[in-house]
Amino acid sequence: MIVRAMQKKIFEITADLYIIPVFKGENNRFSPEDYSLFGAKLEAFAENGGIKEEYKKRSFYSFEAFGGVKKIFFLGLGEKEKLTREKIREASGFAAKEAKSLGAANIAMALLSPSPDDFKAQLEGFMLADYSYDELKAKKDADKISALNFPDTAVQFEKAISETTQVIDAVFFAKDLMNGPGNYSTPAKIADAAKKVAAGDKRIKLKVYSLEEAKKMGMGSFYSVAKGSEEPAKFIVAEYKGAPASKKKGVFVGKGITFDSGGISLKPQVSGSSMIEDMKFDMSGAASVIALMKIISGLNMKINAVFIAPVTENLPSGKAYKPGDVLTSMSGKTIEVISTDAEGRLILCDALYFAQKYSPAFIVDIATLTGACVMALGHFATGLMGNDETIKTMMKKAGETSGETVWELPMLEEYAETLKSKYADIKNIGEGGAGTSVAGLFLKEFVGDYPWVHLDIAGTAYGIKNKSYIPDGVAATGVRLMYEFTKNAVNGGVL
Ligand code: BES
Ligand code: MN
Ligand code: ZN
After folding, report:
1. What is the reported pTM?
2. Which residue is closest in CA terms to ligand 1's atom 18?
3. Position 20 in a domain
4. Which of 81, 104, 159, 437 has its CB 3.0 to 4.6 Å from that of 99, i.e. a possible disulfide?
5. Spacing, Cα 371 to ligand 1 middle (Å)
6. What are the tens digits of pLDDT across the range 288-304?
7. In angstroms, rounded to a whole number, what is the distance separating the alpha carbons of residues 66 and 106?
8. Exactly one of 227, 267, 396, 397 is catalytic; which is it?
9. Could you give the CA distance from residue 394 to residue 484 in angstroms, rounded to a whole number?
10. Could you tell me if residue 9 is inside a domain?
């Protein structure tokens, strides 16, 4: 989709479809010039209540111009005071979906609000709604919208357009990796995706460790999860140096399980609301940190950041790790395995420990970690935990601006107690509920004293319904959130 900021008036732009927002009580706001273009017909249409003003209601008006029949799409927005940024994303996504179903390819769309941040939300919602995944289908999906033109937009919006289009491009990059099934989006493919990003930027130093190399570095926990699979595991580390003079670095760690069968603690076909085939999305954390690197590099951010993704399948086999096994993590801590299905924390603990070698200003980890998080928070809030108020606050603020809501869960000592093991330093699951908190408390053991935030996206990465701007349920939640967080960290002097 080509996006253009134009200094023309909306009806001076050649388009198939003109999208015009209408607020409550404003359906008669057209200027005499506008009406002169359409004659009295549009005026009569408006006066007869043809234009619906309620939020997400649509009405169409056809007219002839530029040698064909064109349509005006009046996009109802309801009361102006109640229009939030998230409602802008949603309304704009709704408009895009409708435009697509009309077969419109070239669109002119008026701004829903004069604020540049609202404009970004409008563009985000519109572009995100146009996503579809048809790579593995012989019959491809309907054509995507080819151009989106904004009228009366001054040059100041050019920057917002270039920023937003790069962000959305990276979100789509993450979504494609996520949608790729276990036999396509393998650990090697994810490493290739990271290579592709790194190849375009000399400031990125990429190292992809094999499982043997990871084992040699002492990652006994990651190794144990991976050893049951025939698909070669990868430990991906990408260092981005956009501020060579600065010592500050942020580290982002993403869980990369390309398929989570549960291992010897095999998952059933259906458990609660999740299907085993959805466990191909269990690499969403890894995909999102690589996508974040793509944004940071693409926008030439003057910061230093490291992106780490332990990537493997979790499968049962004669070589697989077993309940009762005791693993030695890179930190030296031994871990008793109670469930091989609590594998995410086992690959992350080595990655988090590895992250400490950078003496980071902060560590963020992101993972589809617990089914309990889906129970607790559903699909519209990412679970958040951490050991540092400043960083947590920055992440919460990022949740508000991105619309990717985060919600803090408690890290109670009482829950940590349940991780005590009879045979090792710690066991990999607790008891007595609060599974998301317990998982967070497990990870906390591996970050030392570094400021750290943990994001559990088990419910938010995919499975979202009834959002116009998230068309097929794959949200790649975390990409926009972590980008906003990174900007907050820069503004707050942390990075
Ligand atoms: N990948 C799953 C978590 C998950 C479940 C993500 C549902 C998305 C939807 C994770 O590896 C897992 O299996 N967790 C277990 C932990 C349990 C054994 C303590 C779970 O949530 O059941
Ligand atoms: Mn699991
Ligand atoms: Zn998992």
Report:
1. 0.97
2. 342
3. yes
4. 104
5. 5
6. 999 999 999 999 999 99
7. 13
8. 267
9. 9
10. yes
